[in-house]
């Protein structure tokens, strides 16, 4: 089957009654679709893609893995909403000469500017009211994001692979749990897992891509033994 919406649920259901289920990523099915896309063409493309000897299949996710994925997707949604709200607030207040830098760390600066006696008393009352509405929404979103971060951190402590990943510099609970990968024996080598978890850069493409593999200039220092 194509690994689209509800595919993992149906894969588990069919596997429970004795079927061998293989899921194919939609990007691997698309090249085999002929003419106009419809159910018949999709079924033919899935069958053709599944017959390829080098085809890579998607591991069927457990309900726990899908639940963890839902936490991450909701977190991304809330972070996006908060960023959108902060940018909207900055844009509205900039029309009145109240300008701050980008980023949520500057929200408190806007909050301080709008405090009574801070030099914004000549603004219409509706401006302060609408800004306070935005501040309340931003604070609410930040609180929910913090709650999701707490759930992720708690789940990372119960997972041995994520706990081991966090021993690497720069890898925290969110990055370590974002992989929620299938069993390690489903990967041919460590490089495949690193690519899936986005820990390593994608392989260079053709047409000069190999020349852009390194963006750093060659070092002129002599090698140092550590």
TrEMBL record:
Q: Which GO terms describe its biological process?
A: DNA transposition
Q: Where is the composition biased (Polar residues)?
A: 217-226
Start and end of every Transposase IS110-like N-terminal domain? 5-95
**GO molecular function terms noted in the UniProt entry:** DNA binding; transposase activity
Pfam hit, one? DEDD_Tnp_IS110
Region Disordered, residue ranges: 185-226
- What is the name attached to this protein's record? Transposase
């Amino acid at each position: 089957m194509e690994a689209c919406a509800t595919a993992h649920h149906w894969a588990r259901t069919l596997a429970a009654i004795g079927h061998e289920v293989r899921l194919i990523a939609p990007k691997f099915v698309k090249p085999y679709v002929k003419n106009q896309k419809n159910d018949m063409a999709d079924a033919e493309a899935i069958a053709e893609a599944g017959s390829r000897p080098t085809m890579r299949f998607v591991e069927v996710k457990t309900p726990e893995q899908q639940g963890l994925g839902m936490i991450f997707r909701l977190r991304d949604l809330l972070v996006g909403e908060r960023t959108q709200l902060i940018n909207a607030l900055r844009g509205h207040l900039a029309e009145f000469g109240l300008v701050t830098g980008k980023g949520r760390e500057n929200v408190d600066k806007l909050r301080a500017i709008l405090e009574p006696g801070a030099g914004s008393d000549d603004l219409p009352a509706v401006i302060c009211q609408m800004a306070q509405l935005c501040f309340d929404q931003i604070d609410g979103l930040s609180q929910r994001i913090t709650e999701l971060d707490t759930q992720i951190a708690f789940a990372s402590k119960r997972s041995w692979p994520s706990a081991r990943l966090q021993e690497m510099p720069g890898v925290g609970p969110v990055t370590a749990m974002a992989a929620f990968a299938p069993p390690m024996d489903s990967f041919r080598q460590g490089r495949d897992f690193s690519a899936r978890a986005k820990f390593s850069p994608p392989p260079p493409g053709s047409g000069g891509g190999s020349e852009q593999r390194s963006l750093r200039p060659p070092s002129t220092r002599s090698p140092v033994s550590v």
